[in-house]
Design goal:
InterPro entries: ARM-like, ARM-type_fold, CAND1/CAND2, TATA-bd_TIP120. With 1239 residues, this protein is an all-alpha fold. Helices cover 70% and strands 1% of the residues. α29 packs across α30. The two termini are 70 Å apart.
Length: 1239
């Protein structure tokens, strides 16, 4: 016998003892054993343990019984299935016992066992088998109605079981429905309530037919409002509708037209409990079926407005009464407020709360009605801020906060360029409400109730975020409210933290001048909070002080407030926290950051406190726990324009900072490099050279492609040191340069690192005397290309040539007297027949960059060399020469541009390369210098719009786009004529050109573009496919980069866009390629346009979600799920995104969405297909499975019978199960992969 088995058998022996204490201790020890993962019971031990525990459930001692029932939970996972079934049978038998105590214990036991059963999703059939065994016994216990206690326990267990395991009980759903429905008319309220809960869970999991039966039953039982019926029966039916609405409201859509008018009528009966149930049902309907509730919104709105102020027992009208009421409140204090909640006679507060919650659901589900809500709901909500009941007040605040969040401008919204649109009018309406809100909250901010004040702070924080600056004129009242909460020692610390957080937010959103006059009032309580013994308050207060210093005494503009009266107090409070060592980590970090801000902003006013502050920062730099915040604080001090004298700490700080560069902590290395750069810029020559060299010795290891950001900061620091202390760098430039040159050969080099490298190289040759000789540096830079075996060895990546060329140009710009010589040498290298391809490519790319600084000398000869190179057999040389021709031409337009235009006319075979040159010239030249040539270029480009090659037309479009930027008001409107009169290729080229005018940054052309964009979008009705595809690409670019251009036109554009997602049979044709013999294959000419349309739809989800009718949108996504491979891939991604962004409408049609996903996941590729077909099908399955995983994140989806069936199909198929598991692992490790670049 194993040790564990022996130990358990000894425990079982003690459980038979006559001493209750022995039995209790033995059961407790068994509980501990069962909770260990390592324990394994043999069959005999299992049987004995189960038998003993079932016996102990009937023990005379209540404590032993309770412990035995708790043991059942861990036991379920340790014994075989048939033993679990034995336990369940025994518990069900006990449920029917005459003894009340045994029935209670059996009920608790069944709930415990059910809660520990492995969910069906794990593939275990145990839960299903156990539930099937219990269900029959529970239904008979419910139906017998002999003992109410048994009935209630059975209903409880059934409800629990349906909520966790509704779908696997599919076979019992009908019998459960027929058993539960009669309980709705039980004379006992408790039975009715539990039946209502169980029916809600059943509604979510049952089949469509049973759901219709349930809905019809409830509707048929609801009498007309004037028909005689007991109030209790009506209340139960309405509560049942509410329960079904909350659990399975997405399935009620089809019944709402019959249902809602009935519920509206019942709302008008004089029964507060019934009104509450009606309003709760409306809330569920609005959340789950917003579209179907559309026609009923006006009536629901008026009911909410009516019942939100339903308070028949209280008179709000007289302010005098209110004052009197408040004094009475103070006299009766706590006693009275507790009685408020238990006042059974007054149910009206529940009606008001339900109305407020319903209003929040209404605002949240219908963002399209915001203007109406601002006119009707907002004033009513503000009026109700004076609500006397705390719970209701919290929900009124909550509803107004939902309104504020819905009004928040969308991401990427630019107020400066928007005309009076929906967003502007909503914000304008909100701005008008601000004084009313402030007036309504004035008394609340000093309310005795903490919860009321917290609600005020939450609401005002949200308001300040939506309308920054709107609270400035109301600052006296806000400051009084903040100070009231900060000095209120009697209440909990939470309200003080909320007040501090609100103050910190205000400092970020309101103008600094608004705080000037209130600083004497605000500062003392904030200082008191900094000294508070509770660490969270101290940390929050330090953050407020930091924000206060940053906002009131900014460094980037003149300071208008004299800090003298306050600086001593602020400094003393922060130093006290900085000196203390026995503090929470958060307070230490905040104190260091706060001191950094104080010294950086007011260091010149600190007087005697400056020295100790700097020494304390140095001390915190040595401590491993506080070194990161100390480094950041030191950076702030170093970059401060006050140019403080840091000599007392620099000599000791530099070696410590040098040691940080060797640490593994990346954040510390980045912060240290920033600090070193700031110190080198501010202190320069006064840094001790020996300490600087110690730092420089650590840098070569950091200049590597393993971490480009660290490399960039290291190179930036090197540039600063080179300018500040060239002598220090001369000693270590060798190893540093070799690492930098290795980095420049990386094909992954980001632009920021390249710019840093250029700056460093320029600094090296720019010092007097230069740290490194110009010629030597050029030779080192170009050596990798020049030393390469002539066209035979392994080549460098294309990107490396561009990087090296930029560096050569940077050196030439730093030494203008040597630039002409460099350019001449490059021309010679480019022309030499002995030069390798790599040398020629580097020469041309370098000339492109150098040509503009070298002057006109070598440029005459350069034309011939570049033209000759355009005919080179090497594609790389041709591309480099084309690029160089454009870039050099941009620097000398009068000489080059007529020549380039002439070549485009004369050399049709080289047109593509020459157009590339023109594109570069248009991009690099100054707009004013191009104006004289604009007409000639315009004419030439439009002559080439009808070219046969799509690639050439694409370059022409980009050239036209760049040309328009030379003179937008004159050239952009001319597109209209081309769109009206041009041929198809010209029209598509014009639309593509417009696409190149859209950038993700604000641009002066935006207002003009916005005024014409509607006309350009009319091209979606163009008869030519290519024009429509180009228009969709342009629309996608606008939605992705600058949604404000098109957001207000979506009502007109979306129908045209959705039209393009449909499969058109007239565009599908069969072709018989020669190489396939007698076989035909199908070509769909409309595929590219459909794909472009679906890409636009995806982009709209990211930036214009609030303007979409999601139900209509989903109709087209649903069609796309059955389309071509490319489109299905897109719609699977869209479906996954929709499941996250707007789960309610997706849930409503989940049954229809599952079928195409199931078809994709179970599809088989024909035997003998090529490898690519198998790969495509695998990728499609993976994408579909990702959509399934995303759908399953919506809580109610798992209860859908069709989804439950598909889930079991996935589990039973090893291939699909493995795929699903791998996708779940991927999504767990990378939660933010739901965004896709489609522009």
């Amino acid at each position: 016998m194993s040790t564990a088995a022996f130990h358990i058998s000894s425990l079982l022996e003690k459980m038979t003892s006559s001493d209750k204490d022995f039995r209790f201790m033995a059961t407790s020890d068994l509980m501990s054993e069962l909770q260990k993962d390592s324990i394994q019971l043999d069959e005999d031990s299992e049987r004995k343990v189960v038998k003993m525990l079932l016996r102990l459930l009937e023990d005379k001692n209540g404590e032993v019984q309770n412990l035995a029932v708790k043991c059942l939970g861990p036991l379920v996972g340790k014994v075989k299935e048939y033993q679990v079934e034995t336990i369940v049978d025994a518990l069900c038998a006990n449920m029917r016992s005459d003894k009340e105590q045994l029935r209670d214990i059996a009920g608790i036991g069944l709930k415990t066992v059910l809660s520990e059963l492995p969910p069906a999703a794990t593939g275990s059939g145990l839960a299903t088998n156990v539930c099937r065994k219990i269900t029959g016994q529970l239904t008979s216990a419910i139906a017998q109605q002999e003992d109410v206690a048994v009935q209630l326990e059975a209903l409880d267990i059934l409800s629990d079981m349906l909520s966790r395991l509704g779908a696997p009980l599919g076979a019992f759903h009908a019998s459960l429905l027929h058993c539960l429905l009669p309980q709705l008319s039980s004379p006992r309220l408790a039975v009715r309530k539990r039946a209502v809960g169980a029916l809600g869970h059943l509604a979510a999991a049952c089949s469509t037919d049973l759901f219709v039966e349930l809905a019809d039953h409830l509707l048929d039982r609801l009498p007309g409002p004037h028909a005689p019926a007991s109030p209790a029966a009506i209340r139960t039916l309405i509560q049942c509708l509410g329960s079904v609405g909350r659990q399975a409201g997405h399935r009620l859509g089809a019944h709402l037209d019959r249902l809602v008018p009935l519920v509206e009528e019942f709302c008008n009966l004089d029964d507060d409990e019934l009104r509450e149930s009606c309003l709760q049902a409306f809330e569920a309907f609005l959340r789950k079926c917003p579209k179907e509730m559309g026609p009923h919104v006006p009536n629901v709105t008026s009911l909410c407005l009516q019942y939100m102020k339903h308070d028949p027992n209280y008179n709000y009208d007289s302010d005098g009464d209110e004052e009197q009421m408040e004094t009475e409140d103070n006299e009766f204090s706590e006693q009275e407020s507790e009685d408020e909640y238990s006042d059974d006679d007054d149910m009206s507060w529940k009606v008001r709360r339900a109305a407020a919650k319903c209003m929040a659901a209404l605002i949240g589900s219908r963002p399209d009605l915001l203007p109406d809500f601002h006119g009707t709901l907002a004033p009513a909500l503000i009026h109700r801020f004076r609500e006397r009941e705390e719970n209701v007040k919290a929900d009124v605040f909550g509803a107004y906060i939902v309104l504020l969040r819905q009004t928040r401008p969308p991401k990427g919204w630019l107020e400066s360029m928007e005309e009076p649109t929906q967003t502007v009018s909503n914000l304008h309406a909100l701005r008008g409400q601000v004084p009313l809100v402030i007036k309504a909250l004035q008394r609340q901010l000093k309310d005795r109730s903490i919860r009321a004040r917290q609600g005020c702070f939450s609401l005002l924080t949200e308001l300040a975020g939506v309308l920054p600056g709107s609270l400035a004129e109301h600052m006296p009242m806000l400051v009084a409210g903040i100070v009231f909460s900060l000095v209120d020692r009697s209440s909990s610390s939470t309200i003080r933290m909320d007040a501090l957080a609100f103050l910190q937010g205000l400092l970020g959103t309101e103008p600094a001048a608004a705080f000037h006059s209130h600083l004497p009032t605000l500062l003392p309580p904030v200082m008191a909070c900094i000294a508070d013994p509770f660490y969270k308050i101290a940390a929050e207060a330090l953050l407020v002080l930091q924000e206060l210093v940053r906002a009131l005494w900014p460094l980037d503009r003149p300071q208008t407030l004299d800090p003298e009266p306050y600086v001593g107090e602020m400094s003393a409070a922060t130093l006290a926290r900085l000196r203390a060592t026995d503090l929470d980590q958060e307070v230490k970090e905040r104190a260091i950051a706060c001191m950094g801000h104080l010294v950086a902003h007011l260091g010149d006013r600190l007087g005697d406190d400056l020295g100790p502050s700097l020494l304390l920062l140095l001390d915190r730099l040595r401590n491993e726990i506080t070194r990161l915040p100390a480094v950041k604080a030191l950076t702030l001090v170093a970059v401060s324009p006050l140019r403080l004298d840091l000599q007392p700490i620099v000599a000791e700080a530099l070696p410590i900072l040098a040691s940080f560069l060797r640490k593994n902590q990346r954040a510390l290395r980045l912060a240290t490099l920033a600090a070193l750069d700031a110190l080198a810029q501010s202190q320069g020559l006064s840094l001790p050279p020996s300490a600087v060299q110690a730092v420089l010795a650590e840098l070569p290891a950091l200049v590597s492609e393993s971490d480009m950001h660290v490399a960039q900061l290291a190179v930036d620091f090197l540039s600063t040191v080179t300018q500040a202390q060239p002598a220090s760098l001369a000693k270590v430039s060798g190893p540093m340069l070799s690492e930098l040159l290795r980095l420049l050969r990386s094909p992954l080099l980001p632009t920021s690192v390249l710019a840093a490298a250029e700056g460093f190289l320029q600094a090296l040759v720019g010092t007097r005397p230069p740290c490194v000789d110009y010629e030597e540096l050029i030779r080192m830079l170009t050596a990798p290309v020049y030393d390469q075996a002539a066209d035979g060895g392994p080549g460098l990546h294309k990107q490396v040539f561009h990087s090296l060329a930029r560096c050569v140009a940077a050196l030439a710009a730093a030494c203008p007297q040597k630039a002409a010589g460099t350019a001449n040498r490059l021309v010679c290298d480019a022309r030499s027949p002995h030069s390798s391809t790599g040398v020629k490519v580097l020469a041309f790319l370098s000339l492109a960059e150098v040509g503009q600084v070298a002057g006109p000398g070598p440029q005459r000869e350069l034309k011939a060399v570049l033209l000759e190179a355009l005919g080179s057999p090497s594609e790389d040389v041709r591309a480099a020469a084309s690029y160089a021709l454009g870039r050099v031409g941009a620097g000398n337009l009068p000489d080059f541009l007529p020549f380039l235009l002439g070549q485009i006319e004369a050399e049709p075979r080289r047109q593509y390369l020459l157009l590339h040159s023109l594109r570069e010239a248009l991009g690099a030249a100054q707009p004013d210098s191009l104006k004289p040539y604009a007409e000639d270029i315009w004419t030439l480009l439009f002559q080439r719009c009808e070219g046969a090659e799509e690639g050439t037309r694409g370059v022409v479009a980009e050239c036209i786009g760049r040309l328009v930027l030379v003179n937008p008001p004159f050239l952009l409107p001319r597109f209209r004529k081309q769109l009206a009169a041009g041929r198809p290729h010209t029209r598509s080229t014009v639309i593509t050109a417009v696409k190149f005018l859209i950038s993700d940054q604000p641009h002066p052309i935006d207002p003009l573009l916005k005024s014409l964009i509607g006309e350009f979008m009319e091209s979606l009705q163009d008869p030519d496919l290519n024009v429509r595809r180009a228009t969709l690409a342009f629309f996608n670019s606008a939605v992705h980069n600058k949604p404000s251009l098109v957001r207000d036109l979506l009502d007109d554009i979306l129908p045209l866009l959705y039209q393009e997602t449909k499969i058109r049979r007239d565009l599908i044709r069969e072709v018989r390629p020669v190489e396939m013999g007698p076989f035909k294959h199908t070509v769909d000419d409309g595929l590219d346009v459909r794909k472009a349309a679906f890409e636009c739809m995806y982009s709209l989800l990211e930036s214009c979600l609030g303007r979409l009718d999601i139900c209509e949108f989903l109709n087209h996504v649903e069609d796309g799920l059955k389309d071509h491979y490319d489109i299905r891939m897109l719609t699977f991604i869209m479906l996954a995104r929709l499941a996250t962004l707007c789960p309610a409408p997706v849930l409503q049609r989940v049954d229809r969405l599952i079928e195409p996903l199931r078809a994709t996941c179970t599809a088989k590729v024909k035997a003998g297909s090529v490898k690519q077909e198998f790969e495509k099908q695998d990728e499609l399955k993976r994408s579909a499975m990702r959509a399934v995983a995303a759908l399953l994140t919506i809580p109610e989806v798992g209860k859908s019978p069709i989804m439950a069936d598909f889930s079991s199909q996935i589990r039973s198929n090893p291939e699909l199960a493995a795929l699903f598991e791998s996708i779940q692992k991927d999504s767990a490790s990378a939660p933010s992969t739901d965004s896709m670049e489609l522009s």
